[in-house]
Design goal:
7 strands, 37% helix, globular, binds 2-acetamido-2-deoxy-beta-D-glucopyranose, signal, endonuclease, RNase_T2_His_AS_2, glycoprotein, hydrolase
């Protein structure tokens, strides 16, 4: 009897701990791996420290995501960013793949992405794994080159449709990506400007190992021309 009681107490306790763990670690359905086109950042956000932004797609972040709640989860109760978790070898790679194109402080950018997003999937990827996995995702497909091979290169005059840009990426990856755009800040009512291609999102399943189709529809405005410059 005593043994049964303690076994029961143990189970209750174990469940309580498990529950607390799940609550504090956040939960999510899948990952969005977001790559950005630096010239668009520099055009729409702030002044960039480097007047000649990089002309390659670079990492914005790896975001654990929820199908029913697009902005969640974020800022979970995980460990705080510690740059000792990024080895010197990995750091050198991330400085190329994941630079802060706005202020130039790469470490602060990584810190912000980990604290806001990485903490919500810490049960799957610890800090070291989070940055390594992101680096591998970036390496797996070169979006800049995929687009270049489809003759989609920065242009001040040419515009494309959503599917013009998605098609070659889909062909290369065998998965549907999501495009995100920003309105051109230099708007002109009498001659509306096309939206600017800003980000390309790849989706990954829960363990961040296998790429899957993105099925969110909100991204660029449908039916509006897209400019890539
Ligand atoms: C997604 O968000 C909804 C609404 O906030 C929440 O009820 C649900 O538990 C979340 N799902 C996952 C897997 O995190
Ligand atoms: C984090 O923990 C604090 C204190 O335990 C709690 O108030 C807060 O809601 C938690 N936040 C998340 C996102 O779980
Ligand atoms: C860059 O950001 C990190 C992390 O927030 C901070 O510790 C460091 O002092 C910053 N470096 C500069 C040069 O501002
Ligand atoms: C990706 O492709 C672009 C355009 O061809 C090239 O400049 C860049 O070096 C490539 N990046 C990597 C990591 O191979
Ligand atoms: C782009 O085209 C070059 C030359 O044909 C080819 O070597 C390269 O593999 C292609 N890259 C991609 C990502 O399709
Ligand atoms: C807006 O577009 C019209 C028509 O192309 C042009 O005449 C005008 O100068 C533009 N205004 C600005 C502020 O660019
Ligand atoms: C996207 O796919 C997931 C998993 O198959 C599904 O649960 C979700 O409802 C889908 N969302 C939309 C908007 O189709």
């Amino acid at each position: 009897m005593a043994m049964l009681k303690s076994a029961l107490a143990f189970l209750v306790l174990a469940f309580a701990f498990f529950f607390c763990y799940v609550m504090s670690s956040g939960s999510y359905d899948y990952f969005q791996f977001v790559q950005q086109w630096p010239p668009t950042n520099c055009r729409v956000r702030t002044k960039c420290s480097n007047p000649r932004p990089l002309q390659i797609f670079t990492i914005h972040g790896l975001w654990p995501s929820n199908y029913s709640n697009p902005t969640m989860p974020s800022n979970c109760n995980g460990s705080k960013f510690d740059d000792r978790n990024v080895s010197p070898q990995l750091r050198a790679k991330l400085k190329r793949s994941w630079p802060d194109v706005e202020s130039g402080n790469d470490t602060r950018f990584w810190e912000g992405e980990w604290n806001k997003h990485g903490t919500c999937s810490e049960q799957t990827l610890n800090q070291m794994q989070y940055f390594e996995r992101s680096q591998n995702m970036w390496r797996s497909y070169n979006i800049t080159e995929i687009l270049k091979n489809a003759s989609i290169v920065p242009s001040a005059t040419q515009t494309w449709t959503y599917s013009d840009i998605v098609s070659p990426i889909k062909t290369a990856t065998q998965r549907t990506p999501l495009l995100r755009c920003k309105p051109d800040p230099a708007q002109n009512k009498s001659a509306p400007k096309p939206q600017l291609l800003h980000e390309v999102v790849f989706c990954y399943e829960y363990n961040a190992l296998k790429q899957i189709d993105c099925n969110r529809t909100a991204g660029c405005k449908n039916r509006q021309a897209i400019s890539f410059q």
